[in-house]
Design brief:
The protein has 70 residues and is mainly α. 59% of the residues lie in helices and 0% in strands. The protein has one domain. Helix 1 crosses helix 3 (58-68). The two termini are 20 Å apart.
Length: 70
C-alpha cells in the first residue's frame, strides 16, 4: 500500500509512510500540549497555527493539509 501523501510505501498506520506517520504522531502530541497551554484550543485552530509557523517541517505541513481537509 502507498502513502496517501507522498506515494512511498505505507509502513505505519492505514495509509501513511513512516515519515508522515511520525509527523502525525508528533502533531497529535503537540495538540495535547497546545490545547492545555491555550485552554482548549480547537483542532482546526491548532492546525491553522501550526501550518503558519516557519519552523514547521514539510511532512507536518502535509499532514496538516490532510487533516484540515477531512
Amino acid at each position: 500500500m502507498k502513502c496517501r501523501l507522498c506515494r512511498r510505501e505505507a509502513e505505519r498506520g492505514p495509509t501513511l509512510c513512516v515519515f508522515h506517520a511520525r509527523a502525525r504522531e508528533a502533531l497529535l502530541e503537540g495538540y495535547k500540549r497546545w490545547s492545555d497551554a491555550y485552554g482548549g484550543l480547537s483542532w482546526k485552530e491548532f492546525l491553522k497555527r501550526i501550518k503558519g509557523r516557519a519552523e514547521t517541517g514539510q511532512w507536518v505541513k502535509d499532514v496538516v493539509e490532510m487533516e484540515g481537509s477531512g
